[in-house]
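Reply to dn_fold:

You asked what the input looked like. This is it:
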Amino acid sequence: MKSWKIVPQEPNVAEFVQCYWLLEKEASDTSHNYPKLNPDPSGTLIIAAEQQKYAYQNKNDNFSGQGSHWIFPNSQTMQLDHSQPFVILGIKFNIGALYSLDLPLKQPVIDQVTKVDVNLLLKIDILNKLSCLTKENHPVESYRDLLDDILAPWLTSKLQDSHSKLCQKAILQLTNHPVSEIGPLLHCSQRTIERSFSRVTGFTLKQCQSMLRFEAILERLYAVKDADIDWLNIVDEFGFSDQSHLIRNLKSIIDETPGQYAKARDLTIDIYGDFTSD
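and this is what came back:
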């Protein structure tokens, strides 16, 4: 298994893009064939060869196709089909960034995976340029520099409106403050913030906060062996009122109890590591 993650250096790109990442599974790799992708308020552009197949399944829908595609922000756990060898490059966008990109599908779009002509989107033969880097075994920084150069002209023309700017300010407060405190902190009514946040992201502040907290829990659990997980400590560390509150939270997000999750350990972070987390 080959993987890496790197953040953009170009400021105009970093305003919209959280990170670039690559994942490659070879035929000899016998790791989990059907990992699960945890709910994520961010969107990711997946760049892949035209003939490479993909398949995603959530509670309500199945998405399948070939080549490059969008994974739009997802409120549900999705099962991936990684049973065959693959190479995928991801461009993970910041929460709410897709709202400003003038995509063909009016944003926000939630719980959808759609095929995309990535060369048409970026107005450059990106697959060919990436292939040249791969053949010559360039370092990770070369991929970052190429992607920065490709994305900068496209993203520089994108402007954030007042709703997007307010949303970004609210996101900065979500990890450290209760939702009810965000209005006073931003000197704005709670209703106004909620309305702008939903318009930009498709989620409520509470939904987004829950997903961000769960991602932090996953990063914490990734570093701990199954036998060493102390769920009571997780309750205290992440601000749950009691263990029942934690159980309800996990059930609502990944449809598993803490015990079921500890036994399965089948989310992508457990299979591939935390390289796609930030």
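The first strand starts at residue 2 and ends at 6.
Hope that clears it up.
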